[in-house]
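HUMAN: Can I see a protein plus its fold?

ASSISTANT:
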Amino acid sequence: MTETRPSRRQHNVPTITDVAHKAGVSPMTVSRVINAKHTVREQTRVRVEAAIAELNYAPNAAARTLAGGEEMRIGLLHSNPSFAYLSAFLVGSLDQASRSNVQLVVEKCDDPGQEAAAVAHLLNGRVDGIVLPPPLSDSPDVLAALKTAGVPIVAVATGRAPEWAFSVSIDDRQAAYDMTRHLGTLGHVRIGFITGNPNQTASAERLDGYRAALADMRLPDDPALVTEGLFTYRSGLDAADRLLDLDDAPSAIFASNDDMAAATVAIAHRRGLDVPSDLTVCGFDDTALATTIWPELTTIRQPVVEMSRMAVELLVHAIRLSKAGRLADIAEPHVLADYTLIRRQSDAAPRRRPAVQRRD
């Protein structure tokens, strides 16, 4: 005897189709009533609500999406060495996904050479589009795999998004220019700079802004004052040591993110230097880390949470237009967010002081 598996209908669980049949309307009309759309006539709405009550129907997540539309799933592929940045990005993404009533699928991609596999895993999960925070928004392998897949993507915090992709970013060059000008205005002449990871376009943009400001202020552009970091706290420790070991050490250090700026403060304290009396330190991003160390960091506020919300909102809009065959109707495929220079306790005018203490 062959066992018959019970179906959902055999469990007497009502569906949106059952409600529609009971009320004598289409499932789309039921969905509109559930979503409180005002395009449904009062008589029809009353009939649908009566059918819902009689059948004891509980709408599921899919039924609460756009009227007549299927449930939308978007992917978020991440690989970020800064925990503070990633945390802020996830908070904004999850919040906007909830507001947009879409499902967010988060996928990690930390292993080099596994980018294509991570993209394939997301696509196998039937996502309708993908958000790419840095550094994957600049990854040639990830972008190539997604271009082949043909799904909408939004690249975040990239200096040069592909023409076929959407993007959300700030003007990294101008932001770095403004911070460097601020340090020069305070009276600093030798300003050290810790670059970001060379595989991210934002790193080059920030370095260009730093150098442009030095040129405009006619300050020395000494190659020894520029040292490479990787956007990690550990790389910031090494970079700060290299700068402070110089015979003519800088009186101010501008790091390309808050993690490396926080590491610079730690190195200064280790050497017995006061921040900002002996050394001014500034960062970039204004993540939670900027206000959890002492002194609190002067930094560029990149609105990470807001940018992630904007990316999810833009992606959802793009997916809906794509399904309607109107993807070209998007007015702003590349969104530029605002940034702010935030002054806190880690910057001050330089003062005459003993030579910077060097490591043994």
In short: The first strand starts at residue 73 and ends at 78. The domain at 172-301 is CATH 3.40.50.2300 (Rossmann fold). The chain has a mean pLDDT of 87. Residues 252 and 280 are 4 Å apart (CA to CA).
